[in-house]
Specification:
There is one protein chain. This protein is of the alpha/beta class. Helix 8 packs across helix 15 and helix 14 crosses helix 15. Strand 4, helix 4 and strand 5 form a beta-alpha-beta unit.
Length: about 325
């Protein structure tokens, strides 16, 4: 049995806390919201973010950071990406040398273009940081539907330890040393999922969705490899796998926000209606900045930014993508002479 602290009591943090408790571990969950903690402690269910999923009595819910992070074998970082750095900074004075922190959120910091694990490493230099990512909606993990994810770490033994803590008969965990590739796939797919949702909101069909998913992973892979990620990662669970589920699932908040924008709502109206953090909105500007920094063509990312921040309509953006100059699908494939 391991002692695990979970930072963040949203849908994902709650679902993982339930999984870890069911695996026999001692789990403490922190939230900054005292009302949320009281509700979780009393109801043993997240009524707003994970309704219908009952939580074990053994899980401790608290608004005290110190009791959540001290004396723990593992800390799970499940706060929204926009709050990763600030939360890590609050935790730092209480974190012991060599403390394992597993980030399970997805995003890129707009101001620095840093991944979430890089932010945690900067704020808590004494910690060892790993990641857990993949096609894994909290609603399905909470209901114990079969799910597969990837534990990423610089050291093999660290990834295998994370694997052993989380894995069970319905939650399969693979390992990988490509932490950067895993995080880029997880963050950038949210931007493409916004585009997929917009296409749905416009009333377009499966052909359009397939095109966005396929060309989206091409964009993500181009940038990811240029930044040092591995192409195998982008063809795996944390690349194309995560992209498919986020673009297609009814549980996807990014797809839902995109759908509402496609129907004519503003970005803020869409985010207000979704009522949860839409990570793709926070990652869109960072994705565009990374594309410019590494000189990588990412037309879908460019069009999503134009819709979110420049007043372009979703229909105009789709037309812009369809009417781009003609080209070959893969310039590296040879032609007969």
């Amino acid at each position: 049995m391991a002692a695990v602290g979970v930072m963040g009591a949203g849908s994902w943090g709650t679902a993982l806390a339930r999984l870890l408790s069911k695996n026999g571990h001692e789990v403490t969950v922190w939230s900054i919201d005292k009302n949320e903690i009281e509700m979780l402690s009393r109801e043993r269910e997240h009524k707003t973010k994970l309704p219908g999923v009952k939580l074990p009595e053994e899980i401790v819910f608290t608004d005290d950071i110190k009791s959540t992070v001290t004396g723990k074998d593992m800390i799970v970082m499940a706060v929204p990406s926009a709050f990763t750095r600030s939360t890590a900074a609050k935790m730092c004075p209480m974190i012991k040398e060599g403390q394992l922190i597993v980030d399970v959120a997805k995003g890129i910091e707009e101001s620095t273009l840093k991944t979430l694990s890089a932010q945690i490493e900067e704020e808590i230099p004494q910690a060892e940081v790993a990641v857990l990512s993949g096609p894994s909606h909290a609603e399905e993990v909470g209901r114990e539907l079969p799910t597969t994810v990837v534990a990423g770490a610089k050291k093999k033994e660290t990834a295998e330890y994370v694997q052993s803590i989380f894995m069970n008969e319905v939650f399969r965990v693979y390992t990988s040393p490509d932490v950067l590739g895993i995080e880029l796939g997880g963050a950038l797919k949210n931007v493409v999922a916004l585009a997929a949702g917009m296409a749905d909101g416009l009333g377009y069909g499966d052909n359009t969705k397939a095109a966005l998913i396929t060309r989206g992973i091409a964009e993500i892979s181009r940038l990811g490899v240029k930044m040092g990620g591995k192409i195998e990662t982008f063809s795996g669970l944390t690349g194309i796998g995560d992209l498919i589920v986020t673009c297609a699932s009814v549980h996807s908040r990014n797809r839902k926000a995109g759908y509402l924008i496609g129907q004519g709502k503003t970005m803020q109206e869409a985010m207000d209606e979704v009522k949860m953090v839409v990570e793709g909105v926070y990652s869109a500007k960072a994705a565009k900045a990374l594309a410019e920094k590494y000189d990588v063509s990412m037309p879908i990312v460019e069009e999503v930014n134009a819709i979110l921040f420049e007043g372009k309509t979703a229909k105009e953006a789709v037309n812009g993508l369809m009417l781009r100059d003609s080209r070959t699908e893969n310039k590296d494939l040879p032609w007969e002479e």
